[in-house]
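Our consortium's second objective concerns turning raw sequence data into structural hypotheses that experimental partners can test. To show how far this objective has progressed, the report includes one record in full. It was chosen at random from the queue rather than selected for favorable results. The single chain below, 99 residues long, was entered without modification.
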Amino acid sequence: MTDPDRSDLKILLILLAVAGVILLLALTLGAPLVAEVRAALEPGIGLRAAALWGFGVTVVLMIVFALVAGDSLLGELQYMLGAFFSFFAVITLLIAWVF
């Protein structure tokens, strides 16, 4: 072997050693995080609990929309009811899916 090949080999061995140390540190320090990951992947709240939270969020959201609408509430009632049921369905399903 020539001299430049040996220096490349030394650099490769040093890089492999550093990568091994980093991997060992990642495994050692990352082991306690496995419990957190497993807890995050467990089933959360069901559809029934999500419906309660979705109803509360939707009612608050509709009150805010009614307050900032500026027009009369009675003229927009049909739109508010349609939006209420649409928001309720979407928010409930998203809460059940995320949590």
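The partners drew two points from this record. Residues 1-42 form one domain. The chain has a mean pLDDT of 82. Both points have been shared with the crystallography group to help prioritize constructs.
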